[in-house]
């Protein structure tokens, strides 16, 4: 996570790790978008499963067991339309899904 964040730290990106249920277990947030994350309850311990918040990269990736990118209005919740999110499932040595890795980017400011 830290290596990926180091590559994108000067942009409006955050890096997220979830468990197999879509609960955020770790995240590194770009300081410029920290307030927005807080207002969306995008924090450690929050649940981002598809059944809880609708279509989003974390929840959908876990539901279909494939990498996915969800852009703007593809998110179910209107509050999330300002984001582009890319997530991939993480598997253990048996091929079972044990979590997801997500990169979150704030959309172009003109879309606010």
Structure explained in plain terms:
The chain has helices at residues 2-8, 34-39, 50-53, 57-64, and strands at 13-19, 24-28, 68-71, 83-91, 97-106. It is of the alpha+beta class. It has a single domain (2-111), classed as GAF domain (Beta-Lactamase), CATH 3.30.450.40. The protein has a five-stranded antiparallel β-sheet, sandwiched between helices. The radius of gyration is 13 Å and the shape is globular.
- Portion in beta strands: 25-35%
State the order of secondary-structure elements, H for helix, E for strand: HEEHHHEEE
Low-confidence stretches: none
Shape: globular
The percent of residues in helical segments reads 10-25%
C-alpha end-to-end distance? 28 Å
Question: Strand sequence of the main sheet, in spatial order?
Answer: 2-1-5-4-3
List the helices and strands and how they pair.
Elements: H1 2-8, E1 13-19, E2 24-28, H2 34-39, H3 50-53, H4 57-64, E3 68-71, E4 83-91, E5 97-106
Antiparallel strand pairs: 1-2, 1-5, 3-4, 4-5
Question: What's this entry about, in short?
Answer:
With 112 residues, the chain is of the alpha+beta class. The protein contains 4 helices and 5 strands.
Which descriptors apply to this entry?
31% strand; alpha+beta; 5 strands; five-stranded antiparallel β-sheet; Beta-Lactamase
